[in-house]
Structure formats: structure tokens, C-alpha cells
Amino acid sequence: MTDNQYLLLYTTAPDGEPWSAESDDIADWLDTVDPTGIRIFGERLTTPSDARMVTKRAGAVAVSDGPFAEYTEWFVGFDLITAPDLAAATEIGSRHPCARFGRVIVLPLMEPIEGREKLEETIRAREDAAAV
After folding, report:
1. Model pLDDT for residues 78-90, shown as the tens digit of each residue
2. How many angstroms separate the CA atoms of 111 and 57, rounded?
3. Structural domains in the chain plus CATH codes
4. Residues 8, 4, 121, CA angle at the centre, nearest 5°?
5. Rg over CA atoms, the chain
6. Of 49-53, 73-77, 81-85, 114-118, where does the model show the most confidence?
7. Which among 17, 55, 102, 110 has the fewest CB atoms less than 10 Å away?
8. Backbone φ and ψ of 18, nearest 5°
């Protein structure tokens, strides 16, 4: 069975337990996943004040500087991992320190061919809608 790829997104959480240097040492988690090859890549993210939100409506690009009032939680990091299935990826995410003091969002990546098919399907649907 071929492993699938999953994006683990880490966020702050107002209801999270307080961060603890003893309980939340990221090196402990890395020591368990890196030797196995589960973790492909990951990194911490900078603060909301460094972020930009980009939108494009009717051809006009708008850029907003962070922080963003509409977000009560913020992305603080990510890891790209491999796992046999969503349950295994969720278990891996549950061991990350952020699961205790923040949140871990586990997102399956589309298979490349599936992603291409979905893109073409979306393009066709938009063309059909524009023709009406």
C-alpha cells in the first residue's frame, strides 16, 4: 500500500492548555517521526503582523496587512507527512505538542491525477455557468 500525504496545520487555540517546556518539547516529537521518514518537511510560521491577505475581485488585487481581526486563531506552523491513511495521520498529529496547547488540523492532499481532474471539472463548470 502506498502512503498518502497529509498537511498538518498547527493553530493557536483560546481553549488550549498552557504551553509547558517540559510537556511540549518539539524535539521529542521530531525524534519520533524524523527517523521513520514520516515527516517530509515542516516549519514554524511568523506572527500575524508579518502576514498578508491577498484577494482578487473583478480583476482588482487587494492586499491587507495582518493581523486580521476576523481570525481568533492563528496558524503557527505546519508539517507535510506521509501515512497509510487518515486515521494514521490523525494519530501522528495527536502526538504533536500543539495538539495539547493549540490545534492540529489534518488535511489529506489530493492525488496528483485527482487534483488535475478536479481542476478540469471546476474549469468546465465555470465555463458552463458563464455560458448561461
Report:
1. 999 999 999 999 9
2. 29
3. 4-131 (3.30.70.1060)
4. 95
5. 18
6. 81-85
7. 55
8. -60, 145
